[in-house]
Amino acid sequence: MAARLNTSLQNTLSLFSKKLPSSPRRALYCTSSLESHENAETFVLTTPLYYVNAPPHMGSAYTTIAADSIARFQRLLGKKVIFITGTDEHGEKIATSAAANGRNPSEHCDLISQSYRTLWKELDIAYDKFVRTTDPNHEAIVKEFYERVFANGDIYRADYEGLYCVNCEEYKDEKELLENNCCPVHQMPCVARKEDNYFFALSKYQKPLEEVLSQNPRFVQPAYRLNEVQTWIKSGLRDFSISRALVDWGIPVPNDDKQTIYVWFDALLGYISALTEDNEQQNLDTAVSLGWPASLHLIGKDILRFHAVYWPAMLMSAGLNLPKMVFGHGFLTKDGMKMGKSLGNTLEPFELVQKFGPDAVRYFFIREVEFGNDGDYSEDRFIKIVNAHLANTIGNLLNRTLGLLKKNCESTLVVDSTVAAEGVPLKDTVEKLVEKARTNYESLSLSTACEAVLEIGNAGNAYMDQRAPWMLFKQGGVSAEAAAKDLVIILEVMRIIAVALSPIAPCLSLKIYSQLGFSNDQFNSITWDDTKWGELKEGQVMAQASPVFVRIELEAAEKDEEEKKKPKDSKKKGKAKVKVEQQPQTVTEA
Ligand SMILES: Nc1ncnc2c1ncn2[C@@H]1O[C@H](COP(=O)(O)OP(=O)(O)OP(=O)(O)O)[C@@H](O)[C@H]1O
């Protein structure tokens, strides 16, 4: 395992030490100004705080991309969004991984935590707060919280004996284990442990938790995960140990420095300590006043029990409000197994971003994996999807339209888009699809939201083909005037696509906006209201057309018929490379 970790870390470090090409997306890496939202509704969402046992992989990136898309959508709605992510840095698993890499835990945490921040930057993740559980502010809040729960009579000392999965950092029930007491998530045997620990009286909260779930079934999403949680609770909740006698790398238990606080008890509180400001007095009440309860915890299904059972009980004990929703999405898998740091079967997000850019990576995983379910990655599918959707349906349509506008109208709109669309059914179609996208973003059906935006692109392409403006221009007179209006209509469609897709592919959306003659500032101040028809006005001058999404080409191997005839094993897989291509025009348009 040490060797695997070292290799993966070296890959990552070498990737993020290379300077990636600069691109306009840097302009997008700004978080919303919280001050400008004084009266706005607050929306606080969190990703898990990722363990720093190893650098991030595509699974960690997946949750964070989804969270960023939701955060961006909520900002478009005008809410004051606080998007929290960060790293979970205590516990046995981290100490072991630091030792395996020849570092002290603190250096190890600094290094790996930084690799998360670097990846988030490359992926255009606009978080508002990045919390590290080794921050002194966080430690102060954990201690205060522990003392509150203790004062409430919910912490006691006892012996514990059980089977422990270090990778989950959790004692397991024998009945949930595989053969040889293997953890079903990590496929490694759990170890028998006996300890004298502090316990949290979870069993006391059985009834209150049942009530929370029956009164608010939307607390756990998707709905099928709620059943899972209800089954756990019904089977009887057992108190759990919240300290470790054998782990030094942790926050000392108040009044007993021979024990450290269990990493999960500590880490969950990062969602609250993240709310504090660096220059303010740190305490639980101040933190809570700055945004608690969270509107949404976005997590993988592996940590549902911690978020939907342990965490609400801990909060009740401390007299704090519960988060409004916990959404447990599915796994990115490799050969059917959860991709994970401990198993080492991960997909390198740094490499993917370097090869294909952030928009393609963000779009593919959001569009391809139905949010909530598991999904497998294949490079062929990746290339097929992003080429078809981003390069062809969206990029090519924009390019063709701008080409025709340049040739026939000096790149200038001849009429307001509202006037152009009078009596044109495409406008209604677009409005319905925008509404479909909005409701699906709201309900976290992110893939369907993407699909709705793509349908707008399909409708735009169908309009272009049906109207064939290049023919109308050739006919001249009234036909040419109609063609010029058609181009305004299609460009307005493109503008709406840019707004509606901006939560998922912000860089692509900015490029579309720029080509439509808008400034970066204008793009940065868009809201969901800008999906309404009519922003493009007569006289607006378009920018020089250039592909907004670079088509990904497979190297010649794919085209080589001979290669295709070879037996399966001897075939070399086509390696993807990025090639800038002029977007194709139809023969008649040219
Ligand atoms: N394969 C995956 N698919 C989707 N999300 C994942 C995947 N792996 C990790 N995540 C995200 O990361 C969270 C777990 O974070 P953690 O830091 O424990 O990563 P991990 O790779 O699962 O680690 P380990 O393999 O050591 O358990 C999940 O709840 C989920 O949000």
From TrEMBL:
GO terms for molecular function: ATP binding; methionine-tRNA ligase activity. Residues 567-577 have a biased composition (Basic residues). Its EC number is 6.1.1.10. Keywords: Aminoacyl-tRNA synthetase, ATP-binding, Ligase, Nucleotide-binding, Protein biosynthesis. Residues 559-590 are annotated as: Disordered. One of its GO terms (biological process) is methionyl-tRNA aminoacylation. Residues 177-402 form the Methionyl/Leucyl tRNA synthetase domain. It catalyses: tRNA(Met) + L-methionine + ATP = L-methionyl-tRNA(Met) + AMP + diphosphate. Pfam families: Anticodon_3, tRNA-synt_1g. GO terms for cellular component: mitochondrion. InterPro entries: Anticodon_Met (IPR041872), Met-tRNA_synth (IPR014758), Met-tRNA_synth_2 (IPR023457), Methionyl/Leucyl_tRNA_Synth (IPR015413), MetRS_core (IPR033911), Rossmann-like_a/b/a_fold (IPR014729), tRNAsynth_Ia_anticodon-bd (IPR009080). The keyword Ligase applies. Residues 424-559 form the Methionyl-tRNA synthetase anticodon-binding domain. Belongs to the class-I aminoacyl-tRNA synthetase family. This is methionine--tRNA ligase.
